[in-house]
Write a structure and sequence with these properties.
alpha/beta; globular; Rossmann fold; single chain
Length: 174
């Protein structure tokens, strides 16, 4: 079975073998360079699918729906998926983040994304609840968990509390 790290970007060091790092940007030197909306895998080929800081780069309509259906397609019936991303509400309501010297830049990046390469901009302001609504359209059993409670098998590059984490399948919260 395959473990897919979709939209890996330059964080491939966080997902060594057996993870297959997938991105459409060749500059990050992924294991597989392709469109994550059209994965070159057979139905049910993946045991685990991880997408860290990906969903906010897809429009909240058709692109996100197409992506989630593609994840569902390649995921084995008993497979697990995990989606992690920036939660704008957590960033703006938790006083711990406002005390950071670079808070304004953090809040801007959570809201807008980066401008370091094409596709790095955010197409919607992500929050855990809004992402969960979208994920549940395809994975009704999905639930949000605290990012720091994710098992170490997931290639999370930073366990910071301003992120949401959504898991599918029989994964327990830690």
């Amino acid at each position: 079975m395959i473990w897919l790290n979709l939209g890996c970007g330059d964080k491939i060091v966080q997902a060594p073998k057996p993870w297959v790092n997938v991105d459409n940007w060749p500059g990050c030197e992924p294991d597989l360079c392709c469109d994550i909306l059209h994965l070159p895998y057979e139905d049910g080929a993946a045991e685990l699918v991880y997408a860290g800081h990906v969903v906010e780069h897809l429009d909240y309509g058709e692109e996100l729906r197409a992506f989630l259906h593609e994840v569902r397609r390649v995921l084995a019936l008993d497979g697990l998926a995990c989606f992690v991303g920036p939660d704008h509400d957590r960033t703006t309501t938790d006083p711990r983040w406002r005390e950071l010297p670079d808070y304004d830049e953090l809040e801007r990046r959570v809201r807008e994304g980066d401008d370091d390469r094409p596709g790095a901009e955010h197409k919607w302001v992500a929050t855990g609840p809004k992402a969960l609504v979208a994920v549940r359209e395809v994975f009704p059993e999905a639930r949000e968990v605290e990012v720091n409670l994710l098992p170490s098998m997931w290639p999370v590059f930073a366990y910071v509390a301003w992120q949401f984490a959504i898991v599918t399948g029989g994964l327990d919260d830690g």
